[in-house]
Amino acid sequence: MYRLLIVDDEEIITDGLYEAFNQLLPDKLDVYKVYSAKAALEWLARTRIDIVLTDIRMPGMSGLEMSEQIREFWPRSRIVFLTGYSEFDYAYSALQIPGARYLLKTEGFDKIIETVQEVLQEIEQGNMLSELLEQSREQRDSMETAAQGDYLRHLLQDSQVLCADTDALSADFSKLGISLEAQFPVMLVLGRLTYPEGISYMDRRELLTSSRLIWNSHLVEMTRHAWVLDRHGDLLWLLQPLHNAEAVFGGNFARYLEGTLEMIQESCRQTLGLPVAFTVSGSACAWTETGRHYERLHRLQQMKIGDGISMVQIDRSGPPEPDVIRETGVRLHQRVENLAAHLDAGRRERFAETLEEIREGIHSGVSVEEAAELYYTVALVLLSHMNRSELYSLVNEYGKLMRLDEHSSLGEGISYLERLAADLFERRSTAEKERSSEVIERICEYIHSHLGEDLSLVRLAELHYFNPSYLSRFFKQEQGINLSEYIDQCRAVKAKELLVSEALKIRDVAMYVGYEAHHSFTRFFKKMTGMTPQEYRESMHANL
């Protein structure tokens, strides 16, 4: 979903444009309004804005002055200037800004709406993969080598020891062509691609390569970065802001990163048809802590709510605690590592295929000792997952898990593990649905209790620790209705209840449901009910 911010000190124009755009593309355009450049910059510090529709002349800070700060923070934002003046110097200055548009207010709402729709089309066309591939063709071979991936995976396994010597770390980065700096902290972003069912290995690799090109094209603007494909098939990016980015963003680099990841998601969706979920460090960490931060991001990713949605989940809990769950004394070979990854990621079919390979291996003539080791290794994978997921009841219920001798045969023991795994996948699915219902219920309760307050998508996302775009998609997926439509319905229902009482003035009713301007409330109520508030009140009293 794209975001439009309307900025004008003339409230009647701002309110009119806000209502017009709110009804235009509710599934595609999230609309906000403010009455000053200062308020607009406060919004832009909180979240990504794709299009700014602004008066070119305003008290305090002009639209032109504001646009300079906007382009520093969100260089991809598109700006459409409105003015009642036609002086050449203002028009000329506005037209020098790349991608900006210039409109006279006298051209009317239809022309303004048409222009914003054209800008939306330009943004979507700019995300097309063919253009990105052409720009990145020369970089394809040098993006990230296999040696870099092997090195970074090795680094994550024991970062506390391997990253303790900053000089040695810098030397390794230089030799491998890694652009990161060992003396500065680093942020981690874990990305999971949801591939289509039944896709071949080579098609998966092609989609992975294409998505990396998209990510790189966005991240290169303000960051130094490196990536590694982890054992779960997810992409881990290690990021540091460029030196000039630190000056631009100050303490808000995480906000910039969140907005950039949203744009990456939109590009992957438009060009590849591929949903991408991100889990992001809430703050940078020392290199010695990268291994533990990565493990925490991985665990958070497994606890996501919703499925197949392009989300951005921020780790806001601070530095991770040491991981106390360590598997020792067991030799994990590659197939069991894959088994653990499929279980954690919820890939039920892939898990079943890998477990079937293990069963075939047992029947292929391995020794009794090797077969027993294989059983206990798989059992430990299941036990570890149950402990992390706090499914302790399953451990008691399935008491034979760590006692192979209680099974009539080794084959029966493997069948038992299959049934236990099926139960884990089923409980995981049920838990995700329950978490989704709880979150939606909490948001709906908040809306009902705060109808007179700011219920913008960004505000609700901040209160409930969501990314705005993900909250919008998640709410519609669960409720079958846009969040803005749900809020309008709640406000209309409450307004009807209050209008029955003659003790309340219509102005008081408007304030109670979030409308400071009487005329705005009247337009809203008539759109929702077909009557003005006064007409509705009179009709209700006539029926008594």
Could you describe the 3D structure shown?
Helix 13 (290-302) links the parallel strand 9 (276-281) and strand 10 (312-315). The longest helix has 40 residues, at 410-449. Helix 16 runs parallel beside helix 18 (410-449). Mean pLDDT is 81; it is low at 318-332. The chain has helices spanning 11-24, 37-46, 63-73, 88-95, 108-126, 129-136, 146-157, 159-162, 166-176, 201-219, 243-249, 253-272, 290-302, 334-345, 348-363, 368-388, 392-397, 410-449, 457-463, 468-479, 483-499, 506-512, 518-529, 533-543, and strands at 2-7, 29-34, 51-55, 78-83, 101-104, 187-193, 223-229, 235-241, 276-281, 312-315. The protein contains 24 helices and ten strands.
- Strand element count: 10
**Major beta sheet, strand line-up:** 2-1-3-4-5
Helix/strand-derived class? alpha/beta
**Beta-strand percentage range:** 5-15%
Helix content: 55-70%
Distance between the termini: 46 Å
Query: Rounded to an integer, what's the Rg over CA atoms?
Result: 28 Å
What shape does the CA trace take?
A: globular
* Average pLDDT taken over every residue: 81
Modified residues (4-aspartylphosphate): 55
Protein name: Response regulator
Domain HTH araC/xylS-type: 441-539
Domain Response regulatory: 3-120
Write the layout of secondary structure elements.
Blueprint: E1 2-7, H1 11-24, E2 29-34, H2 37-46, E3 51-55, H3 63-73, E4 78-83, H4 88-95, E5 101-104, H5 108-126, H6 129-136, H7 146-157, H8 159-162, H9 166-176, E6 187-193, H10 201-219, E7 223-229, E8 235-241, H11 243-249, H12 253-272, E9 276-281, H13 290-302, E10 312-315, H14 334-345, H15 348-363, H16 368-388, H17 392-397, H18 410-449, H19 457-463, H20 468-479, H21 483-499, H22 506-512, H23 518-529, H24 533-543
Parallel strand pairs: 1-2, 1-3, 3-4, 4-5, 9-10
Antiparallel strand pairs: 6-8, 6-9, 7-8
Helix pairs in contact: 2-3, 6-10, 10-12, 14-15, 14-16, 15-18, 16-18, 19-20, 21-23
